[in-house]
Amino acid sequence: MAALVSNDTKAKKTLGTVDYVESSEFAQGILPTKKDVIQNMLYLLHPKRAGQAQRSKEDAAQLLAEHLQEHWLFCNLYTIATPSIKNHILKVYEEFSKLYQTRNRRKNESFTQKADSFNKINFAVLLFAFLTRTF
Q1: Residues near 51 by Cβ (< 8 Å), separated by ≥ 6?
Q2: Lowest mean pLDDT: which of 54-58, 64-68, 79-83, 121-125?
Q3: φ, ψ for residue 56, nearest 5 deg
Q4: SS3 (DSSP) at 9
Q5: Shortest CA distance to 50 belongs to which of 37, 36, 70, 64?
Q6: Is residue 24 helix, strand or coil?
Q7: Please, are residues 93 and 57 in contact by the beta-carbon 8 Å criterion?
Q8: 3-state SS string over 60-114?
Q9: What is the 3-state composition of the chain as percent helix, strand, coil, each rounded to the nearest 5?
């Protein structure tokens, strides 16, 4: 019997032991984690979703920042300016990209520690630190 294969492939990237699979939305009523933000960026930057012109990281971060603001308002939380959210998303995504693109021969104990640390930190905690400038 032939297996059914979906033509709608999802972008999946693995960093350390954590899989990041593109996602178009956040869980309702729950603050997004850093993983949720990365997964949304993967969705927005995927060529099939971004269109022929392909979306830039800045454009994707802008869309995601606006989406995050709406989500925070839904969760009844104080929001900050869109450009600040956008810059923070870009910083987090750049860190993820650098870690993900590390060559296999450079993936040593130090890389493993950095990847594990990146995977553990919650985006809401990072954003709170950003707002209070405690990082």
Answers
A1: none
A2: 121-125
A3: -80, 165
A4: coil
A5: 64
A6: coil
A7: yes
A8: HHHHHHHHHHHHHHHCCCCCCCHHHHHHHHHHHHHHHHHHHCCCHHHCCHHHHHH
A9: 60, 5, 35
Q: Are 64 and 89 in contact (CB under 8 A)?
A: yes
Q: Tokens 């308002």 appear where?
A: 73
Amino acid identity for residue 106 in this structure: R
- Compute CA 85 distance to the chain's CA centroid, rounded to the nearest angstrom: 12
Per the structure block, which two tokens stand in for 50?
Answer: 């971004």
The burial class, CB within 10 Å (0-12 / 13-18 / 19+), for 30 is: exposed
**In contact, 68 and 81? CB cutoff 8 Å:** no
Model pTM score: 0.76
Sequence-separated contacts (24+) of 97-101 with Cβ below 8 Å: 99/15, 100/13, 100/15
13: phi then psi, degrees, rounded to nearest 5: -130, 140
pLDDT tens-digit map of 14-49: 888 888 888 888 877 777 888 889 999 999 888 776
